[in-house]
Design a protein that fits this description.
The complex is a heterodimer of chains A (292) and B (375). Chain A has helices spanning 2-30, 37-53, 58-86, 91-113, 139-161, 163-173, 175-180, 185-211, 218-233, 238-258, 264-278; strands at 129-132, 135-138. With 292 residues, chain A is an all-alpha fold. Chain A has one domain (2-278): Orthogonal Bundle (ABC transporter involved in vitamin B12 uptake, BtuC), CATH 1.10.3470. A two-stranded antiparallel sheet of chain A has the order 1-2. In chain A, α1 (2-30) packs across α9, α2 (37-53) packs across α9 and α5 packs across α6. The longest helix of chain A has 29 residues, at 2-30. Chain A starts with a helix and ends in a 14-residue tail after the last helix. Chain B has helices at residues 2-17, 41-60, 80-93, 105-117, 146-161, 175-191, 209-218, 229-241, 260-265, 285-298, 304-323, 328-335, and strands spanning 28-34, 69-75, 99-100, 122-124, 139-141, 165-171, 194-201, 222-226, 249-252, 273-276, 340-342, 345-347, 362-367, 370-373. In chain B, the strands form four sheets. Chain B has a five-stranded parallel β-sheet, sandwiched between helices. A four-stranded parallel β-sheet of chain B has the order 7-6-8-9, sandwiched between helices. In chain B, strands 10-13-14 form a three-stranded antiparallel β-sheet. In chain B, α8 (229-241) links the parallel β8 and β9 (249-252). Classes of the chains: A mainly alpha (292), B alpha/beta (375). At the A-B interface, α1 and α10 of A face β7, α7, α8 and α9 of B.
Chain lengths: 292, 375
């Protein structure tokens, strides 16, 4: 049972990590808490669902949904946040604007799609479980854990090992100076929105495949856990999102398995409160020092 | 207004046709308050269809008290203020000796007290909430509450499948799934079925692997689940993925009695057991006749609401005949004594005006995406 619970926890944790990656990237580089992020997850799942219903293979539908969500994120950022950036509005302004946009987007999605839960056609992916020494694993679960690891590695390389990453880090540090040094800030902002939205969309497809519960508010449910993950991991830190996602996923699963399922949800939020109390910068976060 | 006039016109037309004993008699008119317009009108329409079908048969057989029986319908639109106005209109204006409906429990909580105050019997056919008949001595209901259905399902599972030890799962953040759990817990204790573990989840949860892995390790004979469709389907899928054998059935409350469950859970839903006060494929002659007549008249399948309404109209007509006069007080006393054998099974009222008999409850199981009678 322990082995199976660890696998359960690993899968849940990888889902949290996948979801938090784009969210933390947006915060880390763009410096905004973009509450519309969860919406891209819902839309990604629906886009892939509609594509597969029209006979498109899931292996095409997944990147298509990710690209489309990235594009939507770029548009939303351009409409809502770029004007605020130009006006040098305080951080709270972006929070309020994206909160309003989130409510609007979810209501529209709800009106257009209804709240009935839907699932991918069963033929899109082999849903049967493989038995490995008494531990049951499905292909989707392997895909989730694998992509969480691969995407973290890719993002770390992008940020720390590439020329583009240097620009992104410069943008995160001092947007004005970066622009003076020849960094095309507008293009990089769009790139980050694109990557983040794409990650959310891909995560939505994977969650949809794993749980077969696609409905307009699926992203909203993930947002609360997403906050717990990025605060525990350190706002804006990619390694932090992976480690914190796995910690929360495993702890929740083990709590439900060995303590009581009624306190399962309390675990993530207890960790959130503890982090804010003991180490507000999170596991990997650096204390933000603003110099005049 | 128009519908009321139409109903009256229809009733007098019926009176002309079924001349016989009822010739030139003014009909005995009872009132009905149902949701006939608005988003929940599918319930009210099904109920009205059930009433009207039974009304035809009652009048064909000579009506009541030597006159045809008629129903004056009022639309509540699912709004309890409108239901309240409808009741005042029926009692004060039409002077009806009895009211059928309203459709929803919360409408009954608004209308019931007025009926009790004016001493007019009121008979709910679809109001299953706790405390409906406690409103007062004139409030009756003919629909079995979930508290009566779940014990039948569990008893059947115990007798036919030899279920001795179960795991229980319920959504702890929703009044409906929580009250379903309370009923299950009481029934399990009464039947002497051992509960190995009780696991909870949130109504919006999608991951149930931790709870089900624990349940798998305890080897229960069945898993008793109080959940709405979303979580219920998720539990069925995770149960299958974790390799819990198909012989370990999921036994659900009314939340799982929905065609949405198999559309999401697919073959993982097979074997799910739920109880239902009525089922379209019940083989008895009365039910077969009802289903055929309903299909012929309305060109669609009847549902549970139509069946409950159909039986109720016969029960009420019998009570009016037994009372010997269209007098509310006499009808109320007669209702308490009516025995009727309808499409829902044998029926009589308890001293508290609830349905007394649960032998009509059918346990159904999911097979190939459709419910069928569990044998």
């Amino acid at each position: 049972m322990l082995a199976q619970q660890l696998v359960n926890g690993l899968v849940v944790g990888s889902i949290y990590a996948l979801f938090a990656l784009g969210f933390t990237l947006m915060f880390g580089v763009l410096g905004v808490i973009n509450l519309t992020y969860g919406f891209y997850l819902s839309i990604g799942a629906f886009l892939a669902l509609f594509a597969t219903q029209h006979g498109v293979s899931i292996w095409l539908a997944l990147p298509f949904a990710a690209l489309a969500c990235g594009a939507i994120a770029v548009v939303v950022d351009g409409l809502l946040l770029t004007p605020l950036r130009r006006a040098k509005a305080p951080e709270l302004a972006s929070l309020m604007v994206t909160l309003g946009a989130t409510l609007l987007l979810y209501s529209l999605a709800n009106a257009a799609l209804s709240t009935d839960i839907r699932r991918f056609p069963p033929s899109v992916i082999d849903g049967s479980a493989i038995d490995l020494l008494g531990v049951r694993v499905t292909l989707t679960q392997c895909l989730i854990v694998g992509s969480a690891g691969a995407l973290v590695a890719a993002l770390l390389w992008l940020m720390n090992g590439s020329r583009l990453g240097m620009g992104l880090r410069a943008l995160a540090e001092r947007p004005d100076t970066a622009a003076l040094m020849g960094v095309n800030a507008g293009a990089l902002v769009r790139l980050v929105s694109m990557i983040s939205g794409g990650l959310a969309g891909a995560c939505g497809v994977l969650i949809g495949l794993n749980y077969n519960a696609i409905q307009p508010y699926m992203g909203e449910v993930m947002m609360l856990k997403g906050f717990a993950v990025i605060i525990l991991g350190g706002l804006g830190d990619i390694r932090g999102a992976l480690v914190a996602g796995l910690i929360i996923g495993l702890l929740e699963t083990l709590t439900a398995g060995y303590v009581a399922s009624s306190v399962k949800d309390a675990v993530g939020f207890a960790l959130l409160v503890l982090t804010l109390w003991i180490r507000p910068s999170g596991l990997f976060g650096r204390i933000a020092v603003k110099r005049a | 207004m128009i519908t009321r006039r139409l109903a009256l016109a229809a009733a007098s037309f019926a009176a002309m046709i079924y001349a016989g004993a009822a010739a030139a008699q003014t009909p005995v008119t009872i009132g009905a308050i149902e949701i006939l317009t608005g988003p929940n009108n599918k319930y009210g329409i099904a109920i009205k269809n059930g009433f009207d079908l039974a009304l035809d048969e009652v009048n064909k057989a000579g009506g009541v008290l030597g006159a045809p029986l008629a129903i004056a319908y009022e639309d509540s639109a699912g709004n309890k203020d409108q239901a309240l106005n409808a009741a005042r209109q029926l009692i004060g204006g039409k002077k009806v000796p009895l009211i059928l409906g309203p459709t929803l429990s919360n409408e009954m909580f608004a209308v019931g007290p007025i009926a009790v105050e004016r001493k007019i019997p009121i008979v709910g056919t679809s109001t299953t909430a706790n405390g409906i008949t406690a409103i007062g001595p004139y409030v009756f209901r003919t629909s079995l509450p979930e508290a009566d259905v779940v014990p039948v399902t569990l008893r059947t599972a115990k007798e036919k499948l030899g279920v001795k030890k179960v795991a229980v799962m319920y959504g702890n953040d929703d009044a409906f799934t929580k009250s379903g759990y309370d009923v299950m817990k009481a029934a399990l204790e009464k039947l002497g079925i051992e509960t190995l573990t009780t696991e909870t989840f949130g109504g919006k949860d999608t991951d149930f692997s931790a709870q089900l892995t624990k349940i798998k390790s305890l080897n229960p004979d069945a898993i008793v689940v109080s959940a709405l469709v979303e979580a219920g389907a998720g539990i069925l899928l995770a149960k299958k993925a974790l390799g819990i054998p198909d012989s370990v059935r999921v036994i659900g409350g009314n939340g799982l009695n929905s065609p949405q469950v198999p559309t999401v859970a697919r073959e993982a839903a097979d074997g799910t057991l739920v109880g239902s006060p009525w089922f379209i494929d019940k083989p008895d002659a009365a039910n077969q006749k009802f289903v055929a007549a309903y299909k012929a008249k309305y060109n669609m399948d009847p549902d549970q609401f139509a069946a409950q309404a159909y039986d109720t109209l016969f029960i009420v007509a019998q009570a009016i005949k037994d009372a010997g006069a269209a007098n509310p007080e006499k009808i109320r006393d007669a209702l308490g004594k009516v025995k009727h054998n309808g499409v829902m099974g044998p029926f009589s009222f308890t001293p508290d005006r609830d349905p007394a008999d649960t032998s009509g409850v059918v346990v159904i199981e999911m097979k190939g995406g459709k419910f069928q009678i569990f044998k």
